[in-house]
Amino acid sequence: MNLTDLQTFSLVAETGTISAAAQRLGVPKSTVSRRVRRLEDALGCELLRRSPRAVALTEHGEVLHRRSAPSLQELQAAADALAHADTEPTGCLRITTVPGFGQSHQFVGCIRDYGLRYPKTTIDIELTTRLVNLVEEGFDVGLRLHTGALPGSPTLMSRRLLRFDRAMYASHGYVEEMGAPDTLDDLSRHRIAAHSIVDVRGVRWLHHGTPLSTHEALPTPRWLINDSAALERFAQSGAGLALLSTMEGEALAARGDLVRVLPGYEQEGATASLIWPASRHLAPRVRAFIDHAVETMGDPRP
Asked: How far apart (Å, rounded) are the C-alpha atoms in residues 147 and 160?
């Protein structure tokens, strides 16, 4: 099987027409048709259904395109890395992460500074709660939040960046109305909100970094909210105490928007790790971002 023929077929599958693929490649349409037919002959099956106006993938064609596209992308990335070795990072860097982390001042500051540092790059960010397949969907890097060890994968590399715990915050108005809790036992008389993905019944409290053997659970929250930004707004509204990530809670407290209650007490939180497709030849923009993310968001704590 000829690699050029496979690449040509993949481009036809992506563009939808032989003429569009020919225009992208800068070759006659007859050349594209000849390469696809040669690939069909080599595989012994029909890959395209042809009509005067368009082409459609056969069942065999869909399978071949789905299975070969990630490998072709990796080959192209390797070729790009060689062609741009030791050059300034350029091109579009595609990043994906969850909305809560994507809206954090750590992440926003990181990508802002990266863009200023490497002006020949552009950054395409997708914030989503679904589990993204970086290789199949063409992302350069992802930032994932996880508790415990990050699941291993032979197709991905990873680097731990930072850990952030959770603490209690409230508005100044709520503290004036209800008072601030002095102990963990006092939480039972307060209205509490938490993120819906947090297992508040099974996460230990820490006191100045030391795990406590008691008080392993919060009172059942009255409100569960599945969006970090909405949870922060809830705390600012004065309706109750909110269990927020210290990543954002401390920034809000520093601005005077919230006050931290029960200082010194935290709940064990999640870790943010950087992941990227395993490759011996990373494009300069990807390698530069990995180094930059470690430099700006790397956690000095062991």
From this structure: 12
